[in-house]
Amino acid sequence: MFNKYIENFQESIIGLRDFVELINPFLSEYREKVAEEHEKDLRPIQLAHLRFLETDETKKQQYTDELKEIYDGDIDVEFIQDSYEDGAPKSNKSIRFKMNGDSLKINEAIEKLIKTSGQKELLYKNSLISLLSSVEWFFSQILHNHFDKFPDSAGIKKKTLTLEELKSFESLKDAENYLIDDKIESILRGSFKDWLDVLKLELSLKLPYISYFEDEMFEIYQRRNLLVHNGGTVNSIYLSKVSDKYKQNLNIGDSISVSEAYLERAISLLHTTFTLIACELWKKLEPEKENRCVVTMELSYEYLKKEKWDISEIASLFLFGDKKMPIASRTAAQLNYWLSKKNSGKFDDVKNEVKDADFSDKAKVFQVALHALRDEEKDFFQLLPNVLKTEELSPNEVMEFPIFSNMRAKQEFQTFLGENEIMKKFSQLTSQN
């Protein structure tokens, strides 16, 4: 049953990403069209900006002269205070244009561009709201699955119903279902932190992976609340609840946005953490179910390929710690966990583990992966032909597995591709296709 819920949740996440990817290009194309139509009107702004950034006085004068030819007036440019996006400081400062002269056409062009930007922001805002709705649905499903199997854990033993309420049910089971539904609805009405309390205190889940991102996910929920209930305007509730790093330079009354990067990060975080919540409950109720390792392995690998190292790290660590899963799957997860640490700049955390790891009793595919992780070039290329010959690794996996990326970047790998018969045949087939 858990597998079905997770698959449905995965489909919702894929559908949301596909929707954004489908609509985004159309909005970008429209924005470019508007910019092209008003290129002449916006040229004075562009010249003023170029002049402001230019250090060569001769070129500065050239920009000034061209500006005078097309604009009756002048445009001053100045830096303003550091700007913030999504609660985090941006690397560049913002600039302000002060226009002296008839700026009607410029203002109209800017307003039209702002409207096109607003369309994209609306896409991201609505997608974030949709994401949270999918998460709530998924969360309610896994809670139902648990409470339906263990109704006493819902704390309904001492619940009372009126005589009129009892008359509306055909059986005691219907009454029990009603109380469980009521329990779940009350949980969903709570905050994200309330959800975590239910999972930890009532369902006895440990949730170690949540601590990595708890503040960030809480901010996502608070931002959704602002969008739905306050038009995206920052209020005292938001400022009092989110951690300091998400409210720098934000004041009551400021407008808060959702960027494409923010949306993708939210999708990745919530997809991973809530899938792991389901898997932890699954592990508790059905510890021997081996198809759970397929879910967590695919989750980890998805974010390895996307190079979202901090997210692939927690998914890999979860599978590695799942003692009931096959040793081969757990070994692969261990390697992926180390790789995530290495690529996120936290290799010192596991450096000694990797150095001391003894894989002599493990399959050669894991040995060659460990050589790659350790940057042991000689041992890697010595063993690689054997694992290809025995088909422990396919040529496609050699070319795609993230753990081999450092070896693929070496000159010796290009030599290997040209000399190894298996890889040469693979290259010929792929080139023909």
How would you describe this protein?
The protein is mainly α and 433 residues long. The chain has a domain at 2-122. The chain contains 20 helices and 2 strands. The protein has helices at 2-37, 39-53, 57-70, 104-149, 163-167, 172-188, 192-202, 214-229, 236-241, 260-285, 291-305, 309-320, 327-343, 351-356, 364-373, 377-389, 395-400, 405-408, 411-419, 421-432, and strands spanning 73-85, 88-101. A two-stranded antiparallel sheet has the order 1-2. The two termini are 40 Å apart.
List the helices and strands and how they pair.
Layout lengths: L1 H36 L1 H15 L3 H14 L2 E13 L2 E14 L2 H46 L13 H5 L4 H17 L3 H11 L11 H16 L6 H6 L18 H26 L5 H15 L3 H12 L6 H17 L7 H6 L7 H10 L3 H13 L5 H6 L4 H4 L2 H9 L1 H12 L1
Antiparallel strand pairs: 1-2
What amount of the residues lies in strands? 5-15%
Q: How many strands, which pairing sense, and closed or not: the largest β-sheet?
A: 2 strands, antiparallel
C-alpha geometry: flat
Please state how the strands of the largest beta sheet are arranged side by side. Answer: 1-2
Rg on CA atoms, Å: 28 Å
Descriptive tags:
single chain, 433 residues, mainly alpha, two-stranded antiparallel ribbon, 20 helices, 2 strands, 6% strand
What's the short story on this structure?
By secondary structure, the protein is mainly alpha-helical. It is built from 20 helices and 2 strands.
